[in-house]
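Re: magnesium ion structure - here you go.
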Amino acid sequence: MKHLSILGSTGSVGENTLRVVRIHPERFSVKALAVKKNIEKLYEQAVEFRPKVVCIYDAPRAQEAAPKFKRLGIRVVMGDEGLEEVATLVGVQEVICAMVGAVGLKPIFAAVRAKKTVAIANKEPLVMAGKLLLAAAEKSGVRVLPIDSEHSALWQCLEKQDPVFVKKLIITSSGGPFRNRKGSLAKITPAQALNHPKWKMGPKITIDSATMMNKGLEVIEAANLFRVPAQKIDVLVHPEAIVHALVEFVDGSHFAHLGVTDMRLPIQYALSYPERLEDHLPHLDLAHLTALHFEKPDRMRFPCLDLGYTASKIGGTMPAVLNAANEVAVEAFLGHRIGFLGIPKIIEKTMRSHSLVYKPVLADIFAADAWARETAEELS
Ligand code: MG
């Protein structure tokens, strides 16, 4: 039996994690859940999965809700301290990190230091501080497992392969909702950008898909996770979203990972690794796939992709700056304060005015994150 803590249990990855747990109750049990503020959904989850502790990040709401959870025999904790407690709870072997944004960074480091395996779905921590996190995990003797579908696919293709023979990592992109749209993207509204053709996800990542910043962040994420330079990572648009990633070896062989478009697949593998569990999802029916298409992304139309490459090549605190500026710009776009094309502009301007720390410690990363938020906010 593997005991789990789930940070961000009411988001789409959190809910899908619980669906996997529900199918395999003999394998997994939930010891702790953490949410930002969705108490109603958390309560339903608590009734079903009976964790020992829940963290409600928003303190006033946590205080208000505590008696209700207490009646179930569940302790309520709150704020950053509460998150850390959930991430380091005694008896938990694996922590699933599925919170949106930079708030997940501290609890993930805490989990690693407490010798927990961490499975990471939200890409921000790996983008901001991936190198530091991998170093910390190595020191603690634990693993950092990716849940992001492309990175889970790369991980599976790279398993037991000598990195010396790896030529390229290739991640695929559905192309987002505007792949075939003619004309300027200047007048795109939040509602149009929130309508993703392939994946049903939260608003932040859906906008990131529309701008292709999602792939920009994923390039940084892959570079950090697999310790390869960004130049060795390619992005291919693949509208069917069946091939999630490929690895090209020096002899010209390619390994590809194929699977249905369902987050439960990478989530389940991060939970069951190194084993594979009998799956309850519909399986891929290759005979009914008429064609798989691949094309190069349009880097002029979607400049966020190159901003990701640039930040990764520069390294140091720059990925954290890109990430923070992007979070602010996406919020501003969703709030109708800037247009769709304002997103890359704000990020680029923020990156240009940043004083880089080349070999950052965690404090430098938080400082760069805070600076970039303020700077991007002023530009919005
Ligand atoms: Mg992804």
